Fold 5,10-methylenetetrahydromethanopterin reductase.
Amino acid sequence: MKFGIEFLPNEPVNKIVKLVKLAEDVGFEYAWVTDHYDNKNVYVTLGLVAEGTETIKIGPGVTNPYVRNPAITASAIATIDELSNGRVTLGIGPGDKASFDALGIEWTKPVSTLKESIATMETLLSKEKTESGAFLKGVKAVQEKVPIYMGAQGPMMLKTAGEISEGVLINASNPKDFEAAIPLIKEGAEAGGKSIKDVDVAAYTCCSIDDDAGKAVGAAKIVVAFIARGSPAPVLKRHGIDDAVAGKIAELLGKGDFGGAIGAVDNKLMDAFSVCGAPDDFIPKIEALGEMGVTQFVAGSPIGPDKEKSIKLLGDVISTF
Ligand SMILES: C[C@H](OP(=O)(O)OC[C@@H](O)[C@@H](O)[C@@H](O)Cn1c2nc(=O)[nH]c(=O)c-2cc2ccc(O)cc21)C(=O)N[C@@H](CCC(=O)N[C@@H](CCC(=O)O)C(=O)O)C(=O)O
């Protein structure tokens, strides 16, 4: 099992750099920095993370092909690859509709758009010219082939990820989600002349760990509330969650009643949409994900009530694998 960790660039960047360095020291192999227009810039953050670390692989987890032209992303990725001496991985997904609505960007044909933009980036990162004549003259990736991972959840996106990328980052925390996802990724991989074994299947979880399991659960409830709100009906059904429960939470969040939404998050929702608790609770949950075919466990937000302490506790968990 590989281990990754997620950071949202919505706190001081130098604090993120320190936390990524700590994650590297305790055994994490990947650090993923999210990309949302209303947070700090993902590439400036990754540049400082590159300078502040030595071995951990780093990358956007995930950017999208709509807010930046693929050539701009390719240039940024090649720059981070240079700064990190060949440790970058490009994480890219379809982005989210709420952001594009706020930015006045039309979210069209996400699967085709991702395929085309990834092909353009691969051309540029392998030091070639695109049909339209784009070429990275002043920056070159260190790696012969920069690994590309896709953020994906829907069936078409999962198949596409299996077909064209080296890894899939799936916003999910429960083995049931991977029972559904892996056959689709396998189908895509085989359509691309590969095997599922060639694809790093990452559980990009909502994670919260603390010595005090209650505190860990408490820190994750609001995140689970937002996940429940955004989960499509087939996902709710898969976890036996009544649409009305998710609807109620959405209504409470919509009114800004975060306390009410947190109060509506029960154990069933926590189990469906998060990996939470004390260190001993984590080992069987990660093993269960591994048995379902997950090959990378990503400790996603909130990580825990006290991030530094949680990263150290996760280091103890990693050392048992
Ligand atoms: C577009 C969407 O794909 P999806 O993968 O389910 O999108 C949900 C998320 O993956 C997407 O919002 C991500 O960008 C969210 N996301 C992040 N989004 C961000 O904006 N920033 C982040 O930092 C971020 C991190 C992240 C990490 C892991 C992860 O799994 C997702 C993450 C979808 O609806 N897919 C369906 C339908 C696809 C579709 O649109 N088909 C159309 C068009 C087909 C074509 O394009 O040709 C059609 O059938 O006509 C499907 O896959 O079946």
Notes: The radius of gyration is 19 Å.
